[in-house]
Design brief:
Helices cover about 35% and strands about 15% of the residues. It has 17 helices and 17 strands.
Length: about 450
């Protein structure tokens, strides 16, 4: 084990915003500790260095022990030499540090990564992915898991279910592991008389309702309101004796709007006494006050509600297709009896990555802040161009371009930006997902150039 440490003046740290500190944590792994003006953190690969922070009088305010029991402090030059970067410039501004290390191109003019894209290799801003990448702990867990691919997930799946249940403060039996929207849709459709109605907001993400027709289900779309929000009164009014479930995405996709909290709770309390309410919270963790907003609170109080979460958005594990659902006890028992959500054969790599992601308490605040900064920049642009836009709280924006989506999307593709599909019936609106800061800046200038 090759442990060593180096000093870093607290005066530099004092220039770091909470976001930057959060990203440093993200970058170097778990153990970033913070006292008044001091930090110390250890990289997650366990093989390299410790980083020590000092106060202004050069006193070491925090120092973690080296594995060999002796703390070694090396100079920056020594550190550079050991890392083959003898002539590197050490004094990085906060922004160029982040840009250099993360490749984020944090701000225009400061470490911005030059981007040149063509229609053949466009920047993909169409799937609401998180291109900032997964937690370092998730990556580490994936690598570790590669050593036991020959084994079934078995008890690791159960342990993950228990971890999620603790986090959500429900019984493990109420947790279903996996990407389950389609399976839930189909199961619910076949679980009663043919012709059961599934109500959802239009335009909207339709994976769940899209799966009900082979089971005899019928889809009923309710338009979003003028603010591009779930129209709660209209959705409630659409419930009738044939309704099998109401499916709500909060924050909504494609608009990103979040329903006002009290109205949303009142809606769920009322409608869940008449039918099952399904709440997809794929993007809810982009909000700071997510624990106070989640409909899981109402499941804990016994409401007839199912909540869905995914690791494909905030946690940047889209390629692993992992999520979970929280269900009321009675429904959970009947769905499980039908074979839904068995963990024994869950994908062990996805389980390991998801479990490690949840255990990394530094990752979400860092991503959340970066995403919020990007949303602000987009909204400034929409204001400047006097475009109508939805008040998105997700990692994407939705705005009215004033021309058919196909025309706008083709123009963006010519500029090297893939904005993806249309969301009928909102044919003159476009959704753009966030990429890295540099990609977003590039996309904004393409939008401005075309719509100005
Ligand atoms: C609202 C919503 N729910 C669920 C998903 C599914 O995400 P994943 O397939 O990555 O789990 C998406 C993906 O776009 C989404 O927008």
């Amino acid at each position: 084990m090759n442990n060593f440490s180096f000093s870093f003046c607290a005066t530099h740290y004092s220039n770091f915003s909470p976001c930057s500190v959060a990203i440093l944590r993200l970058l170097f792994g778990a153990r970033l500790r913070e006292s008044d003006r001091a930090l110390s953190f250890r990289p997650s690969d366990m093989t390299s260095y410790w980083l020590h922070f000092h106060d202004n009088s050069s006193r070491t305010v925090h120092r973690a022990p080296a594995d060999n029991g002796a703390n070694q402090t090396i100079t920056r030059r020594g550190f550079d030499r050991m890392n083959g970067r003898e002539n590197s410039r050490w004094i990085l501004s906060r922004r160029s540090w982040l840009s250099a290390v993360l490749g984020l191109g944090v701000a225009p003019g400061l470490g911005q990564v030059a981007i040149a894209r063509s229609p053949d290799t466009p920047i993909r801003l169409s799937f609401n992915e998180n291109p900032l990448g997964p937690s370092p702990r998730a990556k580490e867990a994936i690598l570790t898991q590669l050593n036991s691919l020959e084994r079934y997930t078995a008890d690791k799946g159960e342990a993950f279910r228990a971890q999620v249940a603790r986090l959500e403060n429900v019984e493990p039996d109420q947790i279903f592991v996996g990407e389950l929207l389609e399976e839930f849709g189909l199961q619910l459709a076949i679980s009663g008389q043919p012709g059961g109605e599934f109500i959802y907001s239009e335009p909207g993400y339709a994976a769940l309702v899209g799966a009900v027709s082979p089971g005899g289900g019928k889809v009923v779309g309710v338009p979003l309101n003028d603010r591009q929000e779930n129209d709660l009164p209209a959705l409630a009014a659409a419930v009738n004796s044939k309704t099998r479930a109401v499916y709500l995405v909060n924050p909504h996709n494609p608009s990103g709007t979040v329903s006002e909290q009290r109205a949303f709770d009142a809606f769920i309390r009322d409608v869940s006494t008449r039918t099952l309410v399904l709440v997809d919270e794929a993007y809810l963790d982009f909000l700071d006050d997510y624990p106070e907003r989640t409909a899981a609170r109402l499941i804990r109080q016994g409401a007839n509600v199912v909540v869905f979460r995914t690791f494909g958005k905030m946690y940047a594990l889209a390629g692993l297709s992992m999520g979970y659902a929280i269900a009321p006890k009675a429904l959970a028992a009947s769905l499980r009896a039908n074979g839904l959500g068995l963990t024994f054969e869950a994908n062990c790599v996805a389980v390991a990555a998801a479990a490690a992601s949840l255990a990394d308490s530094h990752y979400v605040p860092a991503i959340r802040e970066l995403v919020a900064q990007e949303r602000e920049k987009w909204q400034e642009l929409f204001e400047r161009l006097k475009l109508r836009y939805a008040s998105s709280k997700g990692n994407f924006v939705f705005f009215e371009t004033g021309r058919p989506h196909a025309e706008f999307a083709a123009a963006m593709l010519r500029e090297g930006v893939d904005v993806g599909r249309t969301f009928p019936p909102a044919d003159r609106w476009t959704r753009i997902s966030f990429g890295t800061a540099a990609e977003n800046a590039f996309a904004r200038s393409a939008v401005e150039g075309y719509l100005r």
